Amino acid sequence: MARACPVRADLGGEDQLPLTSTLDRPDQRPALAPERPAAEDAAPAPAPPVQAPDTGQPYHVLKIAPTCFFADYGCHVRILEETHALQQQGSRVTLCTYDLGRDLPELDLRRAPRLPWRGGVHTGPTWHKLYVDVLLGLRAGAATLGHRPDLVHAHLHEGAWLGWFVARARGVPLVFDFQGSLTAEMADHDFLSRDHPLFRVFRALEHRINHLADAIVTSSANARELLVRDFGVPAERVFALPDCVNTDRFRPLWEAPPARIAALRDELGIPAGRKVVVYLGLLAEYQGASQLLTAARHLLQIRQDVHFLVMGYPGEARYRRVARDLGIEAHVTFTGRIAYEAAPTYLCLGDVATSPKLSLTEANGKLLNYMAVGLPTVAFDTPVAREILGPLGRFARYGDHVSLAEELSLLLDDPNAGALGRLLRLRADERFSWRDAAGRLTAIYAEVLARRRRGRC
After folding, report:
1. The pLDDT value given to residue 124
2. Is the Cβ–Cβ distance between 109 and 103 less than 8 Å?
3. What is the 3-state secondary structure (H, E, C) of 174-234?
4. Could you tell me how far CA 109 lies from the centroid of its own chain?
5. CA distance 174 to 216
6. Helix H or strand E segment including 91
7. pLDDT tens profile 68-126
8. I need a surface site. Which of 18, 161, 311, 321 has the fewest CB within 10 A?
9. CA-to-CA distance for 331 and 321, rounded, in angstroms?
């Protein structure tokens, strides 16, 4: 039956096996994802060039994060690692966030006042945000009274809305960290249907917020294209700063001590002789959780040597029932929420990884964690997944659980899978490391501040 498990510590150790050559298989690629909406106008202008600052000048940054930070998932990881990267460059970061969440001692956290009727951490949209955001805005404003920041860096649309008031009051620029469409997220979470009368209201509000910031940084090139094409944001204001990964924290699986991995595998009750497919992330429909379990059933009808390690929350109980109803619970282990610090350990249990995410506008940071650990990966064919994995990814037809099962089976049996994982690790280290992204982010800050001095913002 499906099992729950505790969280263990990270891994250490090292190995020095060589990389092999590129391993793409175009003959086995599935069809592309459904066509994206065609642009009526010409393609968006290329992203403005961003050079690293000459002086490495540190900044005082006020961050606003309207979420229950820190909660070990998605956008929280970007906020955390982005903050760490700025701190390592010498910048001072004050982070204003909701009343709930896990405290991290290395961060200067300023929380909104605690409300006694608020329960645990909540993911996704909720009407409670309407009044909690008011409290967060007041908290962010108070955080500027003693020390005027150089700029406000706001996450998510609610943060950009609040950040505009704070930045305007203090006479500093606003940088908006865009991680997906507000209204698309509402639809993805089944919070508000696209035919609901309020959907158009929120769409208009989203359009307005997208035009408030002095600059927008996006978590993917696809998101930058969305802003320029669909919302008419001037191209020179939008900078693609893709999600990255802490490659010092997420070490390759070939560095993991075999005895430690074997012990954790036994603790989780994964039977010997099974190849392990890992998933790490939120458990929700827009993340493709049902598609993953349905693909597992299809795969297990063909072969019995596979085990699925499903790590995440908040839908654990629901998807345990789905696995039981599908008759696959003996081949699935649910861990529940995994602390971010322990995630590298658990990923090292995998032979391959998967991300069947269905959202076409959000980032997909779990792919970067898989890459850094050196896990060959299958994802649904979306623009963001292709942008991250490049020619080293294996792509199933969008939303097709049979295609997902077939691609997983091919990868599990691929004799070159290990070498592919090493190339993915190399790609993560060379293209998606927060060490390099910090320089690009401070360069964007420098450009925004220079524009403000020139009177262009």
Report:
1. 58
2. yes
3. EEEEECCCHHHHHHHCCCCCCCCHHHHHHHHHHHHHHCCCCEEEECCHHHHHHHHHHHCCC
4. 21
5. 9
6. none
7. 999 998 899 999 999 999 999 999 999 999 999 999 999 999 999 988 776 655 555 56
8. 18
9. 14
What is the number of alpha carbons within 13 Å of residue 267 lying toward its C-beta? 14
Phi/psi at 456 (5° precision): -95, -10
- pLDDT over 90 at 29, yes or no: no
Q: Please, what sign has the CA dihedral across residues 222, 224, 229, 231?
A: positive
Other CB atoms within 10 A of residue 444 CB? 21
CA atoms within 13 A on the CB side of 239: 23
Six-digit token string for 71: 């909660």
Q: What is the pLDDT of residues 333-366, one digit of tens each?
A: 999 999 999 999 999 999 999 999 998 888 899 9
Strands (E) across 332-433 are located at: 332-336, 352-355, 377-380, 394-396
- Per-residue pLDDT at 187: 78
Task: Break the chain down into helix, strand, coil percent, rounded to 5.
Answer: 45, 15, 40
CB 102 within 8 A of CB 70: yes
Per-residue tokens: 270 = 């994964």
Query: Cα separation of 294 and 404, whole Å?
Result: 9
C-alpha 426/C-alpha 403 separation (Å) is 27
Q: Is 125:139 a contact under the CB 8 Å cutoff?
A: no
Question: Residue 445's closest CA among 160, 54, 55, 59?
Answer: 59
Of 365, 407, 399, 402, the C-alpha closest to 384 is 365
Distance CA 321, CA 316 (A): 9
Name the DSSP letter for residue 127: T
Lowest mean pLDDT among 141-145, 197-201, 231-235, 378-382: 197-201
The pLDDT tens digits of the residues spanning 238-251 come to: 999 999 999 999 99
Relative to beta strand 174-178, strand 352-355 is: unpaired
Number of Cβ within a 10 Å radius of residue 274: 15
Q: Residue 257: phi, psi to the nearest 5?
A: -60, 120
Alpha helices in 232-335 (DSSP H): 258-268, 289-300, 316-326
DSSP type of residue 339: -
Q: How far apart are CA 360 and CA 188, in angstroms?
A: 10
* In the block, residue with structure tokens 């065609």: 38
Tokens of 234: 């001037």
Bridge partners, 277 (sequence order): 308, 352
List, for residues 315-339, the tens digit of each pLDDT value.
999 999 999 999 999 999 999 999 9
Q: Is the pLDDT of residue 48 over 70?
A: no
Output the pTM of the full model: 0.82
